[in-house]
Amino acid sequence: MELNGKVAVVTGGTRGVGAGIARAFAAAGAEVVVCARRPPEVLLKGAEFARLDLRDPDAVGAFFGALPRLDVLVNNAGGTPYRRLADVDAARHARVVELNLVAPLTASLAAYEHLKRAGGAVVMVGSVSGGRPSPGSAAYGAAKAGLESLARSMAVEWAPEIRVNTLVLGMVRTELSHLHYGGAEGVAAVSRTVPLGRLAEPSDVGAAAVFLASDAAAYISGASLLVHGGGEPPAFLGAATANRGTRHEMPREKRREKRQEEEWARQEEEQEEEWG
Ligand SMILES: NC(=O)c1ccc[n+]([C@@H]2O[C@H](COP(=O)([O-])OP(=O)(O)OC[C@H]3O[C@@H](n4cnc5c(N)ncnc54)[C@H](OP(=O)(O)O)[C@@H]3O)[C@@H](O)[C@H]2O)c1
């Protein structure tokens, strides 16, 4: 298996995206430690849990210092509440930057000696929010943009021993998706905006993380891998009145209906040929 004999830490690996990454790593043969402030509600088969607040640098140092070895660090813990910029003061926004940018730096520095010794890899978990305006989560978007930049610099400074890459995620279906998109209907509506017709599953992200951590990506460092199902079509195309009905703005159902009609037409032709 791709990660046989490797030891991996997945921060925030107790639920959501992180749990998907932890499961994929365990399935690929790695020994996995997940860390978070609270234990997982559902025990993750093949992963050990360690209680850790990533915003506490002393605790982070002690945690990595106590590990016997480490080959892969996945900086996954992150997130933000919905907050317009002017709703709270800068100190509250700084907490978001602390979790999404400072904590991955703190953890990477604490893991550095282990990773150098092992010839290891760091995988950052970024977001498409870092590459476009992020209204309602501006500090988060800024932190994720910073995370990708940090990863690119880290990849240069820590080469050739350590590879550093970023997974740039679009929307992922997790236990908390309803908070972001508003229940099953909201998730379905949002899914229709994605070219591949659905949100990512945590296992999709897990597969991409295993790839970046494995020898299959031995020459990949300082890279950003988009895991967003084709991305966000530009909003102006939805509003423009020219070129209506072209494939890129055709919602998934319409495409399915069209395929269904084509299939029925084909079947009718076949019947006609057979029965005359
Ligand atoms: N879900 C999406 O659609 C999406 C899209 C783009 C990018 N992402 C990125 O994917 C990553 C995971 O997102 P998610 O949706 O799976 O989030 P989530 O469900 O909220 O899970 C976050 C994880 O991080 C842990 N965590 C949070 N604060 C922590 C702290 N101070 N110290 C230690 N652990 C902490 C949480 O556990 P505790 O609360 O118990 O500590 C939990 O295990 C994040 O970096 C997020 O930005 C997600």
Automatic annotation (TrEMBL):
PROSITE patterns: ADH_SHORT. The keyword Transmembrane helix does not apply. One of its GO terms (molecular function) is oxidoreductase activity. Residues 6-175 form the Ketoreductase domain. Belongs to the short-chain dehydrogenases/reductases (SDR) family. It comes from Streptomyces avermitilis. Residues 238-276 are annotated as: Disordered. It comes from the Bacteria. Pfam families: adh_short_C2. Keywords: Oxidoreductase. Residues 246-268 have a biased composition (Basic and acidic residues). SMART domains: PKS_KR (SM00822). This is Short chain dehydrogenase. InterPro entries: KR_dom, NAD(P)-bd_dom_sf, Sc_DH/Rdtase_CS, SDR_fam.
